[in-house]
Design brief:
Layout (H helix, E strand, L loop, with lengths): L4 E10 L9 H6 L5 H14 L7 E9 L4 E5 L4 H13 L10 H27 L1
Antiparallel strand pairs: 1-2, 2-3
Length: 128
C-alpha cells in the first residue's frame, strides 16, 4: 500500500544538535510531525554517519498523510565547507595570509577528497 505524501520539507540542521526548540521545532510542528521522534532519529543517524558535531546538513523530510515521515540526508554544502576551511586558515594565527589561485584550489581539492571518502564508505556499507 502506497502512502500519500502530504508535504516535502527541505531543512538545514546542525548534526547531532536537533532539538524541539525554535526554529526547528516550530517548522516541523506546523506540519504535525512528532518533533521528538524526528529529533531522536536525526541525531542518531548523524551520530552513526560520523559527521562532526555542528556541521550543517541538508536533509529532506517527507511527510505522509498519516503524519509518519521519512528522512533523507543529503551532502554538505560546498559553500559551508569553504567557509569552515577559510575560517580555520584565518584563525591559525599566520600573518599576511593571502588566498592565491593555488591556495584556493588546494582547499577545494581537500574538500573533494573528504567527500569522496564518505561516498566510498557509503558504497561499502550498501554492498555488505
Amino acid at each position: 500500500m502506497n502512502k500519500k505524501i502530504r508535504n516535502i520539507v527541505s531543512l538545514k540542521v546542525p548534526s547531532c544538535e536537533a532539538s524541539s526548540k525554535p526554529p526547528l521545532g516550530s517548522i516541523i510542528g506546523q506540519f504535525g510531525v512528532p518533533i521528538m521522534d524526528f529529533c531522536n532519529l536525526f541525531n542518531k543517524v548523524t551520530l552513526d554517519s560520523q559527521y562532526k558535531k555542528g556541521i550543517l546538513i541538508n536533509c529532506v523530510l517527507i511527510i505522509y498523510n498519516d503524519f509518519s515521515f521519512d528522512l533523507k540526508l543529503k551532502t554538505i554544502d560546498l559553500s559551508y565547507l569553504l567557509k569552515v576551511a577559510i575560517s580555520n586558515k584565518l584563525l591559525s594565527g599566520k600573518k599576511n595570509l593571502s588566498f592565491k589561485k593555488g591556495r584556493v584550489q588546494s582547499i577545494l581539492y581537500g574538500i573533494k577528497k573528504r567527500k569522496n571518502r564518505k561516498k566510498k564508505k557509503k558504497k561499502k556499507k550498501k554492498n555488505k
